[in-house]
Amino acid sequence: MHVDLNLLPALDALLEERSVSAAAARLHLSQPAMSRTLGRIRDATGDPILVRAGRTMALTPRALALRQEVQAIVQRAHAVFAPERELDLARLERTFTVRCHDALTTALGARLLRAVQEQAPLVKVRLLAEPAGDTDDLRHGRVDLEIGSTEPALPEIRGELVGEDRLVVALRRAHPLARGRLTARRYAQALHVLVSRRGRLRDPIDEALEALGLRRRVVAAAPTCAAAIHFAHESDLVVALPARVCGPIVQAMGLITRPLPLDAPELRIVQLWHQRCEGDKAHAWLRGHTREILRAICREEA
To answer: Could you list the pLDDT tens digit for every one of the 302 residues in the chain?
Structure first.
């Protein structure tokens, strides 16, 4: 059955005004046009809606029963098409889910939560760790913002480069490599732990060493930077980490860093979101803060 939804505003006016001429004036229509519309409403509902009662018009019992429901529907329809209101952060109630590498969570988290608490006290932030494999959580709305090093893989995913970092070697202060010049050969001779959420025991550093005719011994893979840093603190293992992003954890654990003695590309920090959030003012506010914080981190001395 085809329902003409254009009849709803006219029905709402007739139920409110209880007069064809008054409803016509309210909707800026002629009285004959409003009378024709009333006829169509009667056909659609199977009810007269307005009937003559002496010198005035009266609503039928069906019309009285429909009055509040019709008014609510029309008001909701107006709300759908009304211009979006200004973002009221003080009253914003929302939970955002942000997923990123554990080092990024540590570097970004405290500053982001402080900004949220100061500006939008009713907002909650759920910080998730990176999964072991690729997911479609952005597409399905399970994640609002994803921060990592990969570019968008799907056309509906938006992304922006928010900063760059560089690799350094983290090691305990009493490590033999802490003294003297750290060459590529000395670095390759050390025992290494890699950071890999998938447990990989090889990364681009191995390719750079092999180009120099060198090989290193990787003895372990850790799922997080925090775990790898702890291993380096408790042994003679060394780990290559992003200098600025991991700086706070490295310093808190009492480790030192040395420049990586290899040519390595800058590490890109990219944030991703689904295109449906492009015009969402609250989402734009969130990603604006993450952008600002991450850019500040990438400007800090490492």
So the answer is: 567 888 999 999 999 889 999 999 989 899 999 999 999 999 999 999 999 888 888 999 999 999 999 988 988 887 777 666 788 999 999 999 999 988 899 889 999 999 999 999 999 999 998 876 677 888 888 999 999 888 888 888 999 999 999 999 999 999 999 999 999 999 999 999 999 988 999 999 999 999 999 999 999 999 999 999 999 999 999 999 999 999 989 999 999 999 999 998 889 999 999 999 988 999 999 999 999 999 999 987 65
**If DSSP codes are grouped into helix, strand and coil, which group holds residue 201?**
coil
The residue behind tokens 């229509």 is 29
Q: Tell me the one-letter amino acid at 198.
A: R
With contact defined as beta carbons under 8 Å apart, do 185 and 229 qualify? no
> Which residues does 39 contact at the CB level (< 8 Å), separation at least 6?
none
Integer Cα distance of 280 and 92 in angstroms:
13
E strand or H helix that includes residue 181: none
Scanning 213-254, the segments in alpha helix (DSSP H) are 225-233, 247-252
Q: Residue 199 CB: number of other CB atoms within 10 A?
A: 11
> How many CA within 13 A on the CB side of residue 224?
16
> Which amino acid, one-letter code, is at 255?
L
